[in-house]
Amino acid sequence: MNAATTKTWKLKALIAASAGACLLAVASPAAAQAAWPDKPVVMVVPYSAGGPTDVVARMLAVPMGKSLGQTVVVENTVGAGGTIAPTRVAKAAPNGYTILIHHMGMATAPALYKKLNYDPLKDFEYIGQVMDVPMTLLSRKDFPANNFKELLAYVKANKDKVSLANAGVGAVSQLCGMLFAHQIGVQLTTVPYKGAGPALNDLMGGQVDLLCDQTTQTAPVIKDGQRVKVFGVTTPKRLSSMPDIPTLDEQGLKGFDVKVWHGVYAPKGTPPAVIEKLNVALRVALQDENVKKRFAELSTEAVPMEKVTPEALRTHLAAEIEKWGKVIKAAGVQAD
User: Fold this and answer.
1) Residue 111: CB partners within 8 Å, gap ≥ 6?
2) CA quadruple 85, 88, 91, 94: dihedral positive or negative?
3) Could you give the CA distance from residue 268 to residue 329 in angstroms, rounded to a whole number?
4) Gap between the Cα atoms of 22 and 334, Å rounded
5) What is the mean pLDDT of residues 10-39?
6) Region 315-330: what's the mean pLDDT?
7) b/e burial code for range 77-103 (CB count within 10 A of at least 16 → b)
8) Does 21 fall in a domain?
9) Helix or strand holding residue 73 (H, E)
């Protein structure tokens, strides 16, 4: 082999080696994504353990984990009206190992708070919607009114004495109560709690008068019939699981429609392949027979599968931000 041939051979070998290195560099991210997940996924909940959103998260975690082949760990990151958890997830590494489940508070926070450390429409990737949860208007068991007509008469005559509990600033119970008071034209004394559980406990104990909260929280105590009175559901149609309870709309509050929707999110920049795997896991969980059974027991159900998409969640979130922004502005409610 002469010098020229040797030189040519070495050049070809160098080019081949370089090409191989480039292929490995290109393939490495794809291989890493293909192996995802290789450790547990943390699902962050903005509210306390035992509350409605926490209940939903824990129902989904097991079947999602089975689908992903890794444990889905539920962590409660509470505080600041449910805004600390989204901040945490927005700032997390965009690798799919930290995700967020949140209710309609994602849509109301921009109007409720003067300053947020995240933008719901810019700082997240969207995995899919989960469910629409009806709400119920309840009172303590010994409240003087026995039906909705009597409730309205009593509240209007005693508005300075009637207390309306909620689970804290930004909680859906606050929003439902706000809309109720606005629609009947009265100002009620609101009593904020640190979570839906404590609010419901004090209602059952007779410390507060009224509460509007999700069926995931209230259905069991409504069905036992011993500890609260129920005056109506907040959806346009009666619930198949509690058909004897009339809607607020049919009792005179025309157009009253409050459903608590939930969605699952990831940090902005999470790879599309990872979002797709999380979306598939969410779909699998929502079709799990045990999850369906638990949803039915709590008088709710999963959204149609066409809503369990990133696109549907983003579109719905944008519409809800606009809707609730108007309601909150009209009520003159804003937190620091």
Assistant:
1) 321, 324, 325, 328, 329, 334
2) negative
3) 29
4) 54
5) 55
6) 89
7) bbebbbbebbbbbbebebbbbbbbbbb
8) no
9) strand 72-76
Q: Where are the alpha helices (DSSP H) in the chain?
A: 3-35, 52-68, 84-90, 105-112, 148-157, 172-184, 196-204, 215-224, 272-286, 289-297, 310-331
Count of alpha carbons within 13 angstroms of residue 51, beta-carbon side: 28
Tokens 């051979």 sit on residue? 9
* Residue 6 is assigned to a structural domain of this protein: no
Residue 113 falls inside a structural domain: yes
Task: Give the CB-side neighbour count of residue 316, counting CA atoms within 13 A.
Answer: 26
How far is it, in rounded angstroms, from Cα 167 to Cα 151?
A: 22
The two tokens of residue 289 are: 């027979």
Q: How many domains does the chain have?
A: 2
* Residue that is written with structure tokens 């309306």 in the block: 164
pTM score over 0.90: no
Give the rounded percent of residues in the chain with a pLDDT score beyond 90.
Answer: 65
What pLDDT, in 10s, does the model give residues 55-105? Answer: 999 999 999 999 999 999 999 999 888 899 999 999 999 999 999 999 999
Determine the pLDDT at residue 335. 66
> How many CB atoms are located within 10 Å of the residue 321 CB?
18
The full length of the chain comes to 336
Q: How far is CA 87 from the centre of its chain?
A: 15
Reference 168, options 140, 187, 189, 196; nearest CA is 196
Q: Do 146 and 122 have their domain in common? A: no
Q: What is the CATH number of the domain that holds 220?
A: 3.40.190.10
